[in-house]
Design a protein that fits this description.
Layout (H helix, E strand, L loop, with lengths): L1 H12 L24 E7 L8 H9 L2 E12 L14 H10 L6 E7 L5 E8 L4
Parallel strand pairs: 1-2
Antiparallel strand pairs: 2-4, 3-4
């Protein structure tokens, strides 16, 4: 439902935004864009479901142009649970970013989660090749 809300918003207010429902652990098929690079990407409450986060993030970052931004929303949680099987606390995000050619992440906002712990929003940029 959220993706459809984003699609409606994009059609009306942000025609350059692509709201995509896909298995992000697989190569992204962006209809009409082929191998074009994106200006940015939002990953909200997603990476913590992927045990091989570095490999997935590396593949996603390849779709972002140098200087493009990646925004990540994750839990600042240090122990795994069935709801967050592969936690990405800020220190881990910094390690992942360095490994996949992204700038050091900047946390722009935090807030308590209704499900316990704290959510954070971080932004990073793809470094020049």
């Amino acid at each position: 439902r959220v993706v459809e809300v984003l699609r409606r918003w994009a059609r009306k207010d942000a025609p350059n935004v692509i709201a995509l429902a896909a298995d992000f652990t697989q190569p992204l098929d962006l209809p009409g864009l082929g191998a074009a690079q994106l200006d940015g990407m939002l990953l909200a409450n997603a990476l913590h479901f992927v045990p091989e986060g570095e490999a997935v993030l590396r593949r996603l970052v390849e779709r972002v142009r140098p200087g493009g931004r990646l925004v990540v929303v994750e839990y600042d949680q240090r122990t795994a649970s069935r709801w967050v099987p592969a936690p990405i606390p800020p220190a881990r995000l910094a390690q992942l970013a360095a490994a996949v050619h992204l700038s050091a992440p900047t946390i722009t906002r935090t807030r308590p989660s209704a499900f316990g712990g704290t959510l954070y929003v971080a932004v990073t940029e793809r470094l020049p090749d």
